[in-house]
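Case study: Monoacylglycerol lipase ABHD6b isoform X1.
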Amino acid sequence: MAADLDVLNLFIIAGGTLAIPILAFVASFIFWPSALIKVYYWYWRRTLGLQVRYADCGGYRFCYSCRGKPGMRPSILMLHGFSAHKDTWLTVVKYLPRHLHIVCVDMPGHEGTTRTSTEDYSIQGQVRRIHQVHGRGLCKPARYTLPLQSPCARSPQFVKSIGINRKPFHLVGTSMGGTVAGVYAACHPAEICSITLICPFGTTHPCETKFDNHLQDLEQSNFTLNIPLIPTTPDEMEDMFRLCSHVRFKIPQQILQGLVDVQQPHITFFQEVFMEIFGEKSRYALQEHLHLITAPLQVIWGKQDQVVDVSGAAVIAEALSGCRVDLLDNCGHSVVMERPCRTAKLILDFIIAQQNASGGAKKSS
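Here is what the predicted structure looks like once written out:
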C-alpha cells in the first residue's frame, strides 16, 4: 500500500512539474505574448551560439550579437532593416557555418543601441555612426578633403572598436541596412572586401510598387496618414506582413498583438527615422554613391517585392559592371524571412568565389 502511494505521489509530482512550464507558456501566449517573443529570440540566439555584447563608444552604446572568431574567411557584419533588430538575421545565421565570424548589430537607436534626440538617423548619419564603432583609433588623413556633412567625411578620431576591421570584412545589409551598407562601402572602401545588398532602397527604379503608392499618399497628406511600415494594431501588423512578404505566413492573433506591444514604445522614434530615411537627404543616397563602390558587389532581390521594386537590381547592375545579381522567385521584400537558407547559401558562395578570385589574382601576379 505504501509503495502504491509512493508511485501515485511520483506521478503527481511529475505531472505538476510538466504542468508548470506548459501553464506558463499558455499564460504567456494569452496575456504576455511580447514576453514570449523575447524568450523566443533568446532561445534561438543560445541555440545558434550567438552571444550578445555591447560596445561603449564615448557615451554611446552599440548592442550586437556575435559568433565565431576571425579566421581564413572574412568576418561578416550584418545590418538589419528599418524598425527591426539584430535578431532579424537569426534565420540566415542558422544556415551559415559555425566557424565564420559573424556580427549582427542593432542599428543606431534600434533595440539595444543608444537612442538620443540629437542623433542624425539619415542614411549618412547611420553610416558615420556604424563606422565610428568599427574604427580603429585615430583616423589617418584622407588623400582629399570632404565636406563635414558628407557621410564619407571622417571624424577627427574614432572610438575603440570591436576589431572587426583589422582586415577587410564582408558587409551585408537588407532594406534600410542595405542602403547603409552600400553607402558605407562607397565611403570606406579599404575596410570592405565584398558586399551583399538585399532589396536596398535608395535608388531610382522604373516600376512603382504598392509601397510607392502609399508613400505618395503619405506625402500628399503631409504624413498625417498611418505609415504602413509602422503598424499600431494587430490588423495593421498583418497588413505589413502582406506588404513585405510574398509568402503568406499564418501568424496567430496573439503573436501579432505581441509584435505590436514590442513596437508600441518605439512608434515615435520609428516615425522620426522614417521621415529621415525617406526625406530628400537620404531617399537616393545609394544611387548617389554607387559610382564610389569598388568592392565586389552582390545584389539579392525578391522578384515579388512590393516595397522596393526588383527593377532596382538592374539599376545597380548597370551602374557597376561585374555586379552579381541573384533574383529569387516567389519572394517579396522580406528575403531574410522568406528565403533564409537560399540567402545564406548565396552569400557564402559569393564570399568563397571572391576569395578564390583574389587568391588566383595574387598567384598570377
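For the exam, be able to explain this: The first helix runs from residue 2 to 31.
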